[in-house]
Design a protein that fits this description.
The protein is α+β, with helices and mostly antiparallel strands and 110 residues long. The protein is 16% helix and 47% strand. The protein is built from 1 helix and 8 strands, in the order H-E-E-E-E-E-E-E-E. A hairpin with a 5-residue loop joins strand 1 and strand 2 (45-51).
């Protein structure tokens, strides 16, 4: 009787293991990054790649920016220390007047 009970338990366990759904991990989300170039005086510039996830990203470069170029793929909002802001829809260039350092940027998908 012990061997038939053990055999029965093994059969039940095997059936339950096969019937149990397996947990699958969702595919990682592919986030596009907008390529931005910040231009200042005398040819100075710096680049950033900003994810299109609606998250504020700090800008720590102290360059006084006079224009910003985007390679496209997202709408971006820029913020300055003195409360100014700029909006760059998709691709192109915006002028910052008067030139000033930028402190953060937020991009979303276009």
């Amino acid at each position: 009787m012990k061997s038939s009970t053990l055999s029965f338990m093994i059969t039940i366990l095997a059936a339950l293991t096969q019937a149990a759904p397996t947990a699958t991990q969702p595919a990682p989300r592919q986030e596009f990054k907008v390529g931005l170039t910040f231009f200042g005086a005398a040819g100075a510039s710096y680049d950033m790649n900003v994810p299109t996830d609606d998250t504020p990203y700090p800008i720590t470069n102290p360059l006084s920016v006079s224009s910003i170029y985007s390679n496209g793929g997202g709408n971006c909002n820029f913020y300055t220390r003195d409360g100014g802001d700029g909006f760059l829809p998709d691709s192109g260039t915006i002028d910052i007047n008067p030139p000033q350092p930028q402190i953060s940027v937020i991009c979303d998908s276009a």
